[in-house]
Write a structure and sequence with these properties.
Length: 171
């Protein structure tokens, strides 16, 4: 298994151009022993169905409708699924991929975040699925730290990194 990068490795990669993650709100609060916490910029609800098949031409992304934070900077979310966009922009080199896991406090509130793999070579402001399972809902604050991004070094750099439709998303 390839090594998971620790906070010293991450700091070294934050100093590169481009940094492995840019737009951190507060590095001291977001840097963890084995990852970086990502924070919420936007929340949207789903407003249409979607589709996926073997061929990308069969893919139809669901439409979304943005939700607004209150004047106090929070949003009260009912049970259901939401698309969240992060503040931070991730820039992965050809020899590093990332996995995202929800912060444990979310799980203790009946909330989860589902993510896909951040492939080597990906660059963008990512989105994830926020699922509120708690039947009483959940109060989410703008800029909340919700996901820990964990970086794994590949055994060898890839010749061609991620080239899908989400390359450069939301920048």
């Amino acid at each position: 298994m390839s090594p998971v990068l620790n906070n010293k490795d991450i700091i070294r990669l934050l100093e590169k151009n481009p940094p492995i993650v840019e737009g951190l709100l507060d590095i001291e609060k977001q840097l963890q022993p084995s990852g970086i916490d990502l924070t919420v910029q936007k929340v949207a609800s789903f407003s249409s169905s979607g589709a996926i098949g073997y061929e990308n031409k069969e893919r139809i992304l669901s439409d979304t409708a943005p939700l607004s934070f209150s004047s106090s900077g929070a949003i009260n979310l009912a049970t259901g699924c939401y698309l969240i966009t992060y503040n931070e922009i991730v820039h992965l080199p050809q020899n590093i991929m990332a996995l995202g896991l929800p912060r444990s406090s979310l799980l203790r509130c009946g909330v989860n975040i589902h993510t896909a793999v951040w492939d080597a070579g990906y660059s963008g402001r990512s989105q994830s699925l926020l699922v509120i399972y708690n039947p009483l809902g959940f109060l989410l604050h703008r800029n909340a730290k919700v996901l820990q991004l964990i970086f794994c070094q590949l055994s060898h750099p890839v010749e061609q990194g991620y080239t899908g439709i989400f390359q450069g998303e939301n920048i």
